[in-house]
Amino acid sequence: MSAAAPAAPGPRNIQLGRLSTPKLFMLAAIGMSAVLIVAYVAVLTTKKAPQHSTCGAVVCPPPPRAPVVTKELYQNAALGYQFVYDGDVWSIASSDANGVTLQAVDPDGSVWGLLIVEGAPTADKDPQTMLNDRLSKLSDQIVGLTPDSDPKDAIPTPTVGDIHGVGGPYLGTIDSPQGTGQQEAVISLAASDGQSTVGFTLVSSPDPNNLPFAAQATDQAMNTLLFPSEKNG
Amino acid sequence: MRNFNSLFVAGVAVILLLAGLGLYPMALVMAAALVPLLTSLYVYDVDVYEDEPLRVIGLTMLGGLLAGLVTGVVARVLAPADATSLSFSTAKVVGIRGVFIPLLGLVLSLIGPLILLNYERFNDALDGVTFGVSSASMFAGTALLVQVSSLFQAGFRPGGAQGPWIVRLLGLGVALPLLFTGVGGAVCAALWLRFRAPLRDRGALGLLGNPPVAFLAGAALLVAGSVVQSIVSGGIALAALLVLDIVVLLWLRYAIHIGLLEEAREIEIGPEITCPNCRRPTPNHSFCINCGVSFQALPKAPSAAAVPGGGER
Lengths: 233, 313
Fold this sequence. Notes:
The structure holds two protein chains of two kinds.
Chain A: H1 21-46, E1 71-75, E2 82-86, E3 91-95, E4 99-105, E5 111-121, H2 127-139, E6 142-147, E7 159-160, E8 163-164, E9 166-174, E10 183-192, E11 196-204, H3 211-223, H4 228-232
Antiparallel strand pairs in A: 1-2, 3-4, 4-5, 5-11, 6-9, 7-8, 9-10, 10-11
Chain B: H1 2-20, H2 24-46, H3 53-78, H4 83-86, H5 90-116, H6 125-148, H7 162-195, H8 211-231, H9 234-264, E1 272-274, E2 281-283
Antiparallel strand pairs in B: 1-2
Helix pairs in contact in B: 1-2, 1-7, 2-6, 2-7, 3-5, 3-6, 5-6, 5-7, 5-8, 6-7, 7-8, 7-9, 8-9
């Protein structure tokens, strides 16, 4: 690179450009059409084939349950709830006074399931408030998070531990400063024993090779949940 | 420029239409392609590459495309946009996606224009602006395309509330490309002013005419845009990006103004011509005496014979 005296800028001839207005608009229309065609072909060739029910029913039964081999106990000292999770599937990603975040990691390091377990005194947060707060937080990182209306994903009776609660399945797309990423399935449930409200939120790829196993591992943990009143009673 | 403004508005309308139909992956592709497409048409229209199209297109547009490809892949490897990213701490997301990736992108997208800086035939500050804008716009589009391609697996209608999607698409298709292209153009303006402008003009942009300062200021704007998006979302993130857009476009506009003045000093008043903008008679110089449009900002003519009073290139 040289800072030597450059040649003086030459004067520019002026006209309306090489392209007349109709030609410019035509080229732009062709360009945009080409972009749409390329996008169409790209989505068509990349999208996964729709998953048909192999069990003949609208809602298939969950996959056969594998026994929990490595039992890990999580106890929340501040709120008094506890549950057992499969240590072969989940590892602790982070924790705080209210709960814990577990992650299921592939050998290549990618996370195929994220389970957020949180609690709060019911006087501060009822189940509906906890659910709304969780979905609101997730909406900061997941674009267009909305209830999943697919009947096969429905949860007829949302239950946490042995207590009926609120929540259900949702779908959205992960976001980042550089753009949106992968579509994710979210299952968020919350319930209360009158003293404490506890919520379980699973985030996982909706891939049928993935979600049923993440959901099963979440179910196993949720079924072992003991609220403070159940522990004491 | 009115034509390009109209085309930009039409492109945004297509993005919104696709979003309204729930065709989010296709809307994302259009969002990624709109600014690079219009920039390509503009570069062709103004004939900025003169008689060296392959070199200029290769070092600006294809260079930007390659930079976007590399940056997009690095971003996906370091911070995959799936459930993995939700397990990251905010500090880690800000560090990778908010700081490192934008800086990497800025450095890579400047490589092509920096090579063109060595060619004395491209001696207008406005050439530098055009090269910077071309490379950066192609970079932004390609990086976005690499990022969003994982959504294609979900099909044409992956589902999701339309309101948040429309806001996000406006950010990705309008605000973010404008930020990148503005910074690319402004940083290159500083480079061209420093190394290609006459000595008297080198201080005209003040501190922002100093390439290292301009680079740091541009990097700060890009990092600010990415960090904001790492921390907040929705309308707040879009509003913050638009504020940054205004800042960078004012900077770019001032740099273009300096470039226009630089050229104006070199031009003698010519015979009367018809203004291509308002169609009224005006002396052939830098600006139309009727509508004030800058003739230097208008496309160059393909030959001197095309317009009375035009000089040789």
